Amino acid sequence: NSQMAEVGQWSLEFAGPDAVLLACGLLAAAATLLTSRLKREQRVRTSAADGEASLVKDAIGGLNELRSDSGTTALLALVTAQFVVAGMIEILGVSLALDILDMGQSGPGVLLSAIGVGGLVGAAATTTLVGRRRMTPGLAFGVLLTGLPLAAVALIAEPWSAVLLLAASGVGKSFVDVAGRTLLQRTVADDVLTRVFGIQEGVSTVGNAAGAVAVALS
User: What integer pLDDT is reported at residue 35 of this predicted model?
Assistant: First the structure.
């Protein structure tokens, strides 16, 4: 996850590698304890050929669902666009810190980690969406809060304003992620939901890479 990577950069910058490794170890231990009481379900054994056929069938089912529902396709495209922007920011943030804001070698880490910290704050703020019947306002709010601060960074060329604006953009991205995935769950049929989520994860990863490549080639 790009936000967690940005938080990791911030942690390395201000706490050092020893503290980061210790925190990762403690979190891994906590996750192990939390999942240790989960009950295992007995799985039905299938041949390798059956497994491959099932994967292909599931993928086709997810694509058919997207073809038959233009609204779901548009929503998936919007969520993917967020990852394209995230991929671009990961490269542009370096140039912004070094070439425009003159923040020194630690500048890129500070700017990119601001997005990650904002994402964590936004993740906590998205609890306000719990129980809401309409997710579209939350999605629209997230899109605006993601894009407008990024545009403002180009107009206000000051280091601290850039940090605050990128943090605000990170908050908006969390709203887009939560509201967008919730809307997908509500609009896609249950029997193909996991397939559509699989496609969403795949195209989001491709979008992130495409954004980074587009900036590198420009």
Answer: 73
